[in-house]
Amino acid sequence: MENKNYNILKWSVGILALLNIVLLLNMWRKPHDRPMQPPMHMEGGPKERIISELKFTPDQIDLFVDLIDKHRKAMDDLKEKGREIRTQYFDLLKQEQPDQKIADDLSIAIANNQKEIEKATFEHFRDVRKLCSAQQKVIFDKIIGDILKHMAKPPHGGGPPH
């Protein structure tokens, strides 16, 4: 009887050790090795969520897609401008005595560029809200905070300029 309990104990310990190894290997995998899945409440991204939850009509979808295209173009331009300004700003580090006035001017330009990004995003969603019926506006007002929160998350690999 005692030998049977000992065998059960040995098998249990072996199975637990194997499960721990599998768990550790899974945890040590790099994040990009894992399949990316959107959070359950954010399936498909902001565009699909807005269309789905607001139950946009085909005409609203067409107008919405046009707004997205215009917004994306504006954002691409602003982000490129921001990268250029940041490059100039951090290139000042290559100098023994960087000109403080230039550094201050560039930091203000970076802040102004970010202000333009926020303003463009605000105006974009204000225009999206204008597409909505009264009933859709109620839903829009409930979901916009969550959509913005998820859009604000930086992409993997983000960080300071190189």
Give a written overview of the molecule.
By secondary structure, this protein is an all-alpha fold. It has two domains: 1-36; 44-151, Four Helix Bundle (Hemerythrin (Met), subunit A). The chain is built from five helices and no strands. Helix 2 (45-54) runs antiparallel to helix 5 (134-151) and helix 3 (58-91) packs antiparallel against helix 4 (100-130). It is flat.
Question: Can I get a quick summary?
Answer:
The chain has helices spanning 2-28, 45-54, 58-91, 100-130, 134-151. The protein has 162 residues and is mainly α.
Task: Record the SSE blueprint.
Layout: H1 2-28, H2 45-54, H3 58-91, H4 100-130, H5 134-151
> Which value, in Å, is the CA radius of gyration?
26 Å
How far apart lie the N and C ends? Answer: 67 Å
Profile the largest sheet: none
Strand content: under 5%
What CATH first level of the largest domain would be assigned? Mainly Alpha
> What would you call the shape?
flat
The pLDDT mean sits at 84
Low-confidence stretches: 34-42
Task: Give a count of the beta strands, DSSP E runs of length 2 or more.
Answer: 0
List SSEs in N-to-C order.
HHHHH
What is the CATH third-level topology name of the largest domain? Answer: Four Helix Bundle (Hemerythrin (Met), subunit A)
